[in-house]
UniProtKB/TrEMBL annotation, chains A, B:
Record-linked InterPro entries: CinA, FLAD1_M, MoaB/Mog-like_dom_sf, MoaB/Mog_dom
Pfam families attached to this UniProt entry: FLAD1_M (PF24102), MoCF_biosynth (PF00994)
The protein's name: Molybdenum cofactor synthesis domain-containing protein
Domain MoaB/Mog stretches: 10-173
Domain of life the protein comes from: Bacteria
Regions that span the bilayer: none
Length: 255, 255
């Protein structure tokens, strides 16, 4: 399925370690890349601690506001993994040892001759009625409740689970992003670029300063879902750069 | 000043490019590191688009909830830099071309023989009454309104501005984090570690799986503000590892 509906999404990254600086998040940027390709608009990201009140408040706000919510973290076997309990409370359902997940995990540990400890059984817990997200890396599944996709925080596992999730989502009209390198700083292009944005309001034009040596250059990015509109905006931007180049004292904006 | 008050903080990272995947944020992790050292608890992070409604809602929520809010992004010279306007609306004050910032910037451009364009003048805009945050990299200041510190998104500038900000904040009691490498996976340690956390409730004990080859190891981190409490928890964790080592089938938890 591929249609023109614009679908929106949020991410909720869960974990004390992201807020203490101990772990530098890698999942947000990966999700952003994957959703861009899938044509789903990532509109907001939140990072919260392993704190039930914070998790419940964030997920309830985000799931009512966006089409999809993707979460990372807090579904392991230890005491600070409270995402399954928090999601159950957010949806007002019991948090259970899911029978199918218990079977998956008990068989996996039996094959390996390892004890299926109480801690390991925690990884089978999820809100009653949740569907699984397969985990090809380490077996313990993520889960889906309504529009919320609950995945692991370990990047290797998050990536694998997200691949499984994205394959199930209807693809939206893809956002095209066209990048135009610009040899001027934002101070030179700000006013004419603002006028170009106004004239092409079915595109979104961003400019990103790049600091190289002692000068700022700019990357201009035109985003949209309509190729003709993007072509038209790009043509105006290139004309602007051409005009500036003729009148310029030189390229790059010194800091 | 250094006292035992626990001060809390949030970060608000602003920018379409963070949500499209085009830019991978580096400022969140840096802020987390700096606040950890300063003894300030980072409790929440949000990333929102260059969207006035989203920025205003987020900053108003966060500034009422935490002692400090640190923002990044959206204070450059182009049309999509709307942070100064959004902050002014959030605080219900006019967004003005700050006279001192106009002087700083006009002198800088005059020294360099560059035109002080309308776009460049945008970088002097801030909520009326805001204090400056010095920008040693590229002159255009960030600003402070009440408990909200508005900084640039370009990492080199964010880092420099944050250094200036942190020097002005009262240092809290520093959080000490002690890391204990553990040769077992979370499935082995989950239950005993949960009991240790319960017995040491003036510390926060986290466990972080590390995936190496085909096995999970764990890093256990004890955090707190009281050295004696951390020592006591650490001793129990080391005893747990010792006990597990004697009874174990081998180290590392296979995936």
């Amino acid at each position: 399925m591929n249609d023109d509906t614009i679908r929106t999404a949020a991410m909720l990254a869960i974990g004390d370690e992201l807020l203490s600086g101990r772990t530098k998040d890698k999942n947000i940027g990966h999700l952003a890349d994957v959703l861009q390709i899938a044509g789903i608009d990532l509109r907001e990201v939140r990072i919260v601690a392993d704190d039930e009140v914070a998790i419940i408040e964030a997920v309830n706000t985000l799931r009512n506001r966006y089409d999809y919510v993707f979460t990372s973290g807090g579904i392991g076997p230890t005491h600070d993994d409270i995402t399954a309990d928090s999601m159950s409370k957010a949806f007002g359902v019991d948090c259970i040892h899911d029978p199918a997940a218990m079977t998956l995990l008990s068989e996996m540990y039996a094959r390996r001759g390892m004890e299926f400890t109480e801690a390991r059984k925690r990884m089978a817990r999820m809100p009653q009625g949740a569907r699984h997200i397969d985990n090809p890396v380490s077996t313990a599944p993520g889960f889906v409740v309504e529009n919320v996709f609950v995945m692991a925080g370990v990047p290797q596992v998050f990536v694998a689970m997200l691949d499984n999730v994205v394959a199930t989502l209807p693809a939206g009209a893809q956002v095209i992003a066209r990048s135009i390198p610009c040899p001027f700083g934002e101070g030179d292009i700000g006013t004419p670029l603002g006028a170009i944005q106004k004239a092409h309001d079915n595109t979104s034009i961003g400019s990103y300063p790049q600091f190289k040596g002692d000068r700022f250059f700019t990357e201009i990015v035109v985003r949209g879902r309509d190729v003709a509109a993007i072509d038209a905006a790009e043509a105006d931007i290139k004309a602007m750069i051409e005009t500036l180049s003729r009148s310029s004292e030189g390229v790059g904006e010194r800091v």
